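Reading group handout, session on sequence-to-structure problems. Before we discuss, look at one worked example. The prompt was deliberately terse, the way you'd type it at a terminal:

> structure pyridoxal 5'-phosphate synthase

The input record follows.
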Amino acid sequence: MLHSAKQVLSTETPDSQASTVTPAPTSTKRIFAPTGGSTDPGHAAQYARGTLSVSDLSPSPTTQFHTWFQEALDAKVYQPETVTFATASLPSGKVSARMVFMKELDDRGFVIYSNWGTSRKAADVASNPYAALTFWWRELERQVRVEGPVERLSSEESQVYYDTRIRGSRIGAWASPQSKALEGREELEQRVQDVEKRFEGEEKIPVPEFWGGLRVIPEVVEFWQGRESRLHDRLRYTKKGDSEWKIERLSP
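And the output record:
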């Protein structure tokens, strides 16, 4: 004999009924569709400061980046060298990202400087020597994305940049076991004092073996120009050979 769902439920005990009912999840949105910077209440800001076509681009992505970087400087973009540096650890695949400064650009790629002994990014690139960079220049409504393998600069190359840093930053590179847990601020300050004593009276401080430059060698570079209605211009360089690049427009 078939029973209705109502009849079946009526034969269950209160305890068994409770165990079969899953309450609907509740969620309170603390932020929803923010429209900061928009002059149109309730709608996101529109991008309308420029356009980008293949004919605008240099055959080389590093040359094109240099052009855009200079335009960012001319437009008074705040610290245009600021970039998100993203890495991923293997075999877990867990991704991490942080803001750093690009300090050099050459024909081989984009160079940042950091601790490569104790930091999270050091562990990531040790297991997975690939990384990504993302620049965002709000004043120009432009974004540049870079992806590719990484390589360490030699100590001799790193020393050149290291020597341009103020003394406190050079001492700090020696003193800080980056990303390691500290008992308190006092521990870090004591380490700084110890390094100061070590190099007391010396103006020429050697670059630490664990610190220096890392170059991201571009295999993919995307130039992004904001457009209205989120129909952005996206032009991507993909490496084909030692000096050849394929340029294609991507759907926004």
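Points for discussion. First: The CA atoms of residues 159 and 207 lie 6 Å apart. Second: The chain has a mean pLDDT of 90.
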